[in-house]
């Protein structure tokens, strides 16, 4: 079933995008924390 296959592929793409975004947010949080430490 082509529809089910393309749906599964789309879900995998969304999942990897979310994982990527999570990594970016972690980097941002780390940078913010480092800057706060520099200010003190």
From TrEMBL:
GO terms for cellular component: membrane. It comes from the Eukaryota. One of its GO terms (biological process) is vesicle-mediated transport. Residues 1-40 form the T-SNARE coiled-coil homology domain. PROSITE patterns: T_SNARE. This is t-SNARE coiled-coil homology domain-containing protein. It comes from Bracon brevicornis.
């Amino acid at each position: 079933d082509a529809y089910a296959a393309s749906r599964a592929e789309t879900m995998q793409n969304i999942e990897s995008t979310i994982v990527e975004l999570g990594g970016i947010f972690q980097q941002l949080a780390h940078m913010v924390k480092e800057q706060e430490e520099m200010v003190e």
